[in-house]
Amino acid sequence: MKPSDRVARWVGDLESTLDAAALLVDRGRDEFDLDPALPFAFEALCNRVGDLAKRLVAADPNRFADPIWSQAARNRDFVVHHYDRLDADALWNTVSRSFPELRASLATTGMV
User: Fold this and answer.
1) Neighbours of 15 (CB within 10 A)
2) How far is CA 45 from CA 6, 31, 60, 71, 102, in A?
3) Cα separations (Å) of 54 from 14, 26, 32, 35, 60?
4) CA–CA separation, 110 vs 29, rounded Å?
């Protein structure tokens, strides 16, 4: 598989993950607070988005140079290694606010 094919596949994976995140955010903050499965889902989304961000930055650092990409990667590391210290507000804000910003940055890469 060519590197450009991998990048395109990762971008597709990122788009579908961000779509899934948006659907969960659409349930609203009250549902997030009431359904114990949603914070776990948000953690998993942060992990996947951050992992994909790491791959994309490593594969094409010029195209994915916006600081939001490295922030997503660092956020993934925090969520994975410090899951016991996650703040519900920070998790909600990451998925409901930062993920749409990441999607907007993705649009500027010319990959979508």
Assistant:
1) 15
2) 20, 17, 22, 14, 13
3) 11, 27, 27, 30, 10
4) 32
106 pLDDT exceeds 70? yes
Give the residue from 54, 52, 46, 53 showing the smallest Cα distance to 96: 46
Average pLDDT over residues 11-26: 97
The two tokens of residue 59 are 């594969």
Instruction: Report the candidate in 23, 19, 9, 21 with the shortest Cα–Cα distance to residue 111.
Output: 9
Burial class (CB in 10 A: 0-12, 13-18, 19+), 42: buried
* Residues 53-83 pLDDT 10s: 999 999 999 999 999 999 999 999 999 998 7
Does residue 112 carry a pLDDT above 80? no
Encoding tokens for residue 105? 């940055």
Average pLDDT of the chain? Answer: 94
